[in-house]
Design brief:
The chain is mostly beta strands. The protein is 14% helix and 38% strand. The chain folds into 2 domains: 33 residues, no CATH class; 124 residues, Sandwich (Immunoglobulin-like), CATH 2.60.40. The chain is built from 1 helix and 9 strands. The strands form 2 sheets. Strands 4-1-7-8-9 form a 5-stranded mixed β-sheet, with no helix packed on it. A hairpin with a 4-residue loop joins strand 5 and strand 6. The longest helix has 26 residues. The chain starts with 25 loop residues before the first helix and ends in an 8-residue tail after the last strand.
Length: 184
């Protein structure tokens, strides 16, 4: 082994460290953050506006839906136009505009009615979804198989970017026997 000595350097002997600036001032960073917030807001508004006034029907079940009708009825008995769909095959998805229902014209409260007929002969009529004044959101109806004889029909009416059902009070599931229409 050689005569290697390790010299310890005191902190007082260290050379002063110069701070090197990034060249970007606080004002520039602030302006960049504001610009990002504005762009993000515009994108979210565009996405939300493109998602409204849509009806999505998904038949995830193994049963044919021979007929599906959807309409709204207000407290005075006034019925909106009826949207009617026929021969919805298993695994089929339908996306339509709900402007035909005239929900943006509703003043007061109205309730969604759904009448579904299955190829097996069962028929059920359900009332759900309380709409209050000028609805412009999304409706979704999904039929899926369960572990038993029934199918589950799920209805959701919501508004906003996250499809909130707070204003509609509609996020319901019904279990229907497709052979006799019995609803649980």
């Amino acid at each position: 082994m050689g005569n290697n000595k390790i010299k310890k350097i005191n902190s007082a002997e260290k050379a002063p460290v110069k701070k090197v600036g990034t060249g970007i001032s606080g004002k520039v960073i602030g302006l960049i953050l504001i610009a990002l917030a504005v762009v993000l807001s515009v994108v979210l508004i565009c996405v939300e506006s493109g998602m409204g006034n849509k009806l999505t029907i998904r038949n995830k079940s193994s049963i044919d839906i021979s007929e599906l009708k959807i309409w709204y009825e207000d407290d005075n008995g006034t019925i909106t136009d009826v949207m009617e769909f026929t021969d919805i095959a298993p695994k089929e998805k339908i996306v339509e505009s709900i402007k035909a229902l005239g929900l943006s014209e509703i003043r007061g409260q109205a309730f969604m009615t759904v009448r579904v007929k299955f190829a097996g002969g069962g028929e059920a009529q359900l009332q759900s979804s309380q709409i209050l004044n000028d609805f412009s959101g999304r409706l979704s109806l999904e039929v899926s198989d369960t572990s038993g004889e029934e199918v589950m029909l799920r209805l959701k009416a919501g508004e906003g970017l996250f499809n909130s059902s707070t204003s509609t009070q509609c996020d319901d599931a019904y279990y229907i026997n497709p052979m006799n229409g019995y609803v649980e």
